[in-house]
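User: I'm preparing a small set of examples for a lab meeting where we compare how different chains pack in three dimensions. I only have the primary sequence for this one, and I'd like the structure in token form so I can line it up with the others. Please keep the answer compact; I'll paste it straight into my notes.
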Amino acid sequence: VQLQASGGGLVQAGGSLRLACAASSRILAIGDMGWYRQAPGKQRELVASMTSGGNTNYADSVKGRFTISTDIAKNTLYLQMNSLKPEDTAVYSCSVVIAVTRYWGQGTQVTVSS
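Assistant: Understood. Below is the structure token output for the 114-residue chain.
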């Protein structure tokens, strides 16, 4: 199983980005999914998650601004990020859990300038 994240970049505060995480198999249809981020000098934190049943959860800091979604037909997980703030700057990674196994994608850098 491979997860390939993309979509990061440099954006001004108030702007938007959409991250994508492409899976090499149909694990998104059966696993619990999440986007994590890690800023320099900080611990990795869960930004948004979605269960295999479609229930979503968001960190308080991104509620109302970020949206997690999937396109099962494309085996792709998305994170739509709106109203970005400089404090959203971090490396964002996708992850999928199936049973007791967690799979990680490589990170994609998101930098928000003020």
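A couple of notes for your slides: The chain has a mean pLDDT of 94. Residues 38 and 111 are 12 Å apart (CA to CA).

User: Perfect, thanks.
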